[in-house]
Design goal:
By secondary structure, the chain is of the alpha+beta class. The chain contains three helices and four strands, in the order αααββββ. Helix 2 packs across helix 3. The two termini are 34 Å apart.
Length: 132
Amino acid sequence: MAEPTGPQPDVPPNHGDNNGWKQRHGLSEADQRTGKKLAARIRPKLEALRAAEDFAPASTQRALLDLGIKADAIEVTGMRPSIGQETPPPGAVYAVHFAKVGCVIGDVRPERVMVEVTASAAEFGCLEPFSH
């Protein structure tokens, strides 16, 4: 087997194999449209929470439920503390699973509301688990 030529990424050996579990499914155009419509409904509710300075995970959960999203399609957690910190920053991380393969993921923090449409991963679903 020939050795690759040109600049190589600065990653450890087997990086791709070791991180394969993070690979997400693809979304069809129809699933992308569904996800964008859902994201457009979610963003104003979460922007309202941010404006009210309400970053509690329970409030994020309630806002998503108020949109008519089923509880079993929602996952909400608090923010994780930074390395060396004991107290997590204010905010909530959320995921809404749709159409069997799609996810609207993001967070609500003092500085922003993030809303992203992506696909789920076979190994973990919508929210990548904390690993380190």
